[in-house]
Amino acid sequence: MSQPTATDSIAALERKGYVEKRATENDKRSLKVALTIAGLSALRAGGAVEGATDRATEVLPEYEQEELLLVLVKMIRQLQERDVIPIQRMCASCRYFAPFVHSDAARPHHCNFVDAAFGQRDIRIDCRDHETADPAFRAATWDAFVEG
């Protein structure tokens, strides 16, 4: 994250009352950012929502969980293509993703970052190792992914 982006993000969180800036004791040029009570509450509420969605999807049969994930990936891709949201860190836009390259129906995809096969249910929407592929590669990968 660049310094201007970090500054803007901190300012937005400060306006919402989620963080406060504090001077550091050793260096007056730097600041420490601390969570406020409201920020801690928002953080906990976010975790509760995440847990609730996990519990809600766990009751679905495995095939419906897989279908839901694939529908979400397709929706995110459409929003990206229309410039509604930025490129997300998901397999379908990653330079390491190779869809349907293995004959194993349970694990047809390959991640070249970790050099491993994986299945539809393991598709990631937010991968820390993601590297955005160039537009031509993304388009070809997407076509292969959708066609299966």
From TrEMBL:
Ranges that cross the membrane: none
Key words of the record: DNA-binding, Transcription, Transcription regulation
InterPro entries, alphabetized? HTH_MarR-typ (IPR000835), WH-like_DNA-bd_sf (IPR036388), WH_DNA-bd_sf (IPR036390)
Its domain of life reads Bacteria
| All residue ranges annotated as the HTH marR-type domain in the record | 1-77
Q: Which residues form a coiled coil?
A: none
Q: Name one GO molecular function term.
A: DNA binding
- From the Swiss-Prot or TrEMBL record, give the protein name: MarR family winged helix-turn-helix transcriptional regulator
Q: Which organism is it from?
A: Ferirhizobium litorale
